[in-house]
Specification:
The chain contains 3 helices and no strands. By secondary structure, the chain is mainly α. About 45% of the residues lie in helices and about 0% in strands. About 15% of the residues are buried. The chain is elongated. The protein has a domain of about 50 residues.
């Protein structure tokens, strides 16, 4: 069951803040390898899993204060957008 503790509204001290996300989080893994590398075929395979985990880890460290993790959310959205664009381009070119 989820915790019913409300998120923190106070900012973290500078030394407790999560390190900013790296540029590598904005680049998706090769989606074909991600899907083929799994033991079972699943629609839930995610080439942006590293960015997703980093954003959830940031929330955990920031006591669920979303304002502290905006950069991580942005990196995940960028990664997801690039991944979807890769898939669209591959379909257009007949490589899917």
């Amino acid at each position: 069951m989820a915790s019913r503790v409300p998120p923190s509204k106070t900012s973290l001290a500078e030394e407790d803040r999560p390190a900013p996300p790296t540029a590598a989080l904005e680049q998706p893994e090769d989606w074909k390898k991600t899907f083929k590398g799994r033991q079972t075929i699943s629609k839930f395979a995610d080439p942006c899993e590293a960015a997703s985990k980093a954003s959830l880890d940031c929330l955990e460290r920031a006591h669920y204060n979303r304002d502290e993790c905006v950069d991580f959310f942005k990196a995940y959205r960028e990664c997801k957008g690039k991944w979807l664009e890769q898939r669209r381009e591959d379909r257009r070119m007949g490589r899917a």
